[in-house]
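dumping the sequnces here before i forget
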Amino acid sequence: MAAEIRDERVRSVSRLSRLLSRPELGAAAGTVLVFVFFAITAGNTGLFSAKGIINFLEVSAQLGILAAPVALLMIAGEFDLSVGSMIGFAGILIAIPSVFWGWPIWLSLLFSFAVCGGIGALNGLAVVRTGLPSFIVTLGSLFMLRGLTLGLTRGISGRTQVSGVHELALHDPLNSLFSGQVFSGLIAWLSDIGLVGKRADGLPSISGIPVSIVWWIVLTLVCTWLLTRSRFGNWIFAAGGEANAARNLGVPVARTKITLFVMTAMAAALFAAIQVLVTGSADTLRGTQKEFEAIIAVVIGGTLLTGGYGSAIGAMFGALIFGVVQMGIFYTGIDTDWFKLFMGAMMVIAVLFNSYVRNRAMRSR
Amino acid sequence: MAEPYVELKSVSKYFGSVVALKDVSFDVCPGEVHCLLGDNGAGKSTLIKTLSGVYAPDEGEIRVQGKPTRFASPADTRNSGIATVYQDLALVPLMSVARNFFLGREPMRKFGPISQFDAEFANRTAYDELAAMGIQLRDPEQPVGTLSGGERQCLAIARAVYFGAKVLILDEPTSALGVHQASVVLKLIVQSKARGIGVIFISHNVHHAYVVGDRFTLLKRGRCTGTYAKSEIDRDQLLNLMAGGKELVDLEQELGKVAKNSSA
Ligand SMILES: Nc1ncnc2c1ncn2[C@@H]1O[C@H](COP(=O)(O)OP(=O)(O)OP(=O)(O)O)[C@@H](O)[C@H]1O
Ligand SMILES: [Mg+2]
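..and the predicted 3d for all of it:
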């Protein structure tokens, strides 16, 4: 009897300390702080109106689409600095075949995903085979892809921007997968019951949820499931935590890492597909610095730079903080120049906090 | 005694001009602890690497249950029931005990078309298996990094036993441990033996070896200098053989002289 009671107490304490040592704890707290901060400073500027919310969620969604698979890769102990350049390259791979060679959009999209996936696999192979740090290998890819994008685009079109995709995509079967909005009926209903504001002409202030937000949530859920509930997830943690031990136990470490490089490259292609179909154009400079923004979101989300520990949900919070701060600064009228200073500082604080949480997790006996 | 599960017959192994093993025979039966003792560089690690499929012997043969066998790889060896627990233990400190227990052999559960990691089964099994070996976990989801050295050693052993090891090879499992931790591991060795597992226990520490061992084999410069049953030898004799008795006596005299000189 006495033993049972003691056992119960041990269990509940451990559950609390388990919660406190979750990687996404800091990011969740940070998200609350940022929301409170802007609720006070920008409460009546429209940041938290339906339109404002959609605006910052769209910013967060784009980054979050990258951040979820980048989190998985970083947990496996590798970096991919090429995702930003990959976005520019993928955009060109969609726009040029469609605009200059007359390919249907759906075919260009598949082409772009296939080529980017292939380059991702090459990144992974190069890292696994050479044993060089992925930081260096993908830094090479960052420059090579940007150069290739510029060279090809100027060579074929004579310019650095390719527009005119909108008209071509209008009746394409894959168009609505990457651009446009969903849940319009729901939004209309929410507007009728007064939860979403109306414009002067009586229509709801927003007409639906941008499809990128759906992609973001779905990708985060899929990555979270992979990480915590699949065999592959176990291998990711092991590859980043102690690659040698994993190999000795028969975990295919190389295959795991290559798969993750393919995933980050495909996420960049998805980012580009959304961007090109929403804006109707591709530009050689698209995606610049997105690799760093993704890493910042992932690190704010509690993933260790050294691998072996982290979460995809955390990366979602990281991306959310990114979007709220960026739009919040815009809405409050603070000079947007301060945004990068803020995000950089946030990341440094997150790194310190993460190593504190990690040490705490390893101490909690 | 029963038929040996695995035997080395007159095995030699050379590294260029280095004779790492010369004409060594060694075997282990189910339910016995066979200790392998020897000085640094005696060839202990080479012997167990040959047994676990890392090296192929240059001369002689390996028999598993009486049949001559060539191991293609360490994984091949594992599949024939011979599990090696190396010094690094093949554990991932940041991962939970349960996930480490099943790393590379994850239990899956089907939900319609998708199959997912059966965390509940993994937690329960890891907890129960370790409990059966006398290790009470606080929580099967605690990171391995929070376990003590002895507990980690036990986790690695319990894992090998759970996955059907018939022979366990333990390379210096107690050398980095304190008295209490070492005794936990030694108990686990005895438990494994009681389950009918053959244990090959490599150690520098004669005291640890003597309390759990049934037989003792001494290696010296790549050669086997004798195998003794516990009934044939007592701890002091073993200690003498191991440390090269004469060398110890010499050392004692020398130290005595040093002490006298410095006090004079
Ligand atoms: N891969 C190798 N290449 C060349 N020589 C080797 C190799 N492995 C071992 N040796 C040599 O073989 C001899 C036996 O080494 P081994 O590692 O088996 O000794 P040991 O008994 O395990 O020693 P210790 O107690 O220090 O672990 C040593 O002289 C060593 O230098
Ligand atoms: Mg050795």
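The interface with chain A takes residues 74-75, 86, 88-95, 99, 102-106, 108, 116-117, 119, 138-139, 141-143, 145-146 of chain B (CB under 8 Å).
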